């Protein structure tokens, strides 16, 4: 009985070590943009593409909430961030 417990504990230890970083498999998609001043920003939520809107999102790069104004330009979407 003691040998079985030892084997099971070693198997569990090996599995724990092999799966130590398994959370990295479950990555959150990042949406990267460049604002109208040329600065990069990354958000975890998708930004609207087909409408002009003002919204607040958390920027991973700057570690703060930012107010985004999204406007439709003639050739591209324009992102203004405060």
Task: Write structural notes for this entry.
With 82 residues, this protein is an alpha+beta fold. Helix content is 21%, strand content 35%. It has one helix and five strands, in the order αβββββ. The protein has one helix at residues 2-18; strands at 31-34, 40-43, 53-59, 64-72, 77-81. The protein has a three-stranded antiparallel sheet, with no helix packed on it. The model has no long low-confidence stretch (mean pLDDT 81).
Quaternary: single chain
* Fraction in beta strands: 35-45%
What is the residue-averaged pLDDT? 81
Task: Note the overall shape.
Answer: rod-shaped
Q: Determine the fraction of residues in helical runs and give it as a percent range.
A: 10-25%
Structural class: alpha+beta
- What is the number of E strands? 5
Terminal Cα separation, in Å? 66 Å
Low-confidence runs of at least 5 consecutive residues = none
The total of helices stands at 1
| H/E series | HEEEEE
What is the gyration radius calculated from CA atoms? 23 Å
Q: Major sheet, described briefly? A: 3 strands, antiparallel
For the largest sheet, list the strands in their spatial order. Answer: 3-4-5
Overview in brief:
The chain has one helix spanning 2-18; strands at 31-34, 40-43, 53-59, 64-72, 77-81. The chain contains one helix and five strands.
Topology:
Layout: H1 2-18, E1 31-34, E2 40-43, E3 53-59, E4 64-72, E5 77-81
Antiparallel strand pairs: 1-2, 3-4, 4-5
């Amino acid at each position: 009985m003691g040998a079985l417990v030892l084997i099971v504990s070693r198997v569990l230890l090996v599995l724990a070590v092999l799966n130590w970083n398994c959370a990295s498999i479950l990555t959150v998609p990042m949406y990267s943009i460049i604002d109208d001043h040329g600065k990069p920003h990354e958000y975890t939520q998708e930004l609207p593409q087909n409408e002009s809107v003002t919204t607040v999102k958390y920027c991973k790069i700057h570690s703060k909430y930012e107010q985004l104004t999204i406007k439709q330009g003639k050739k591209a979407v324009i992102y203004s961030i405060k």
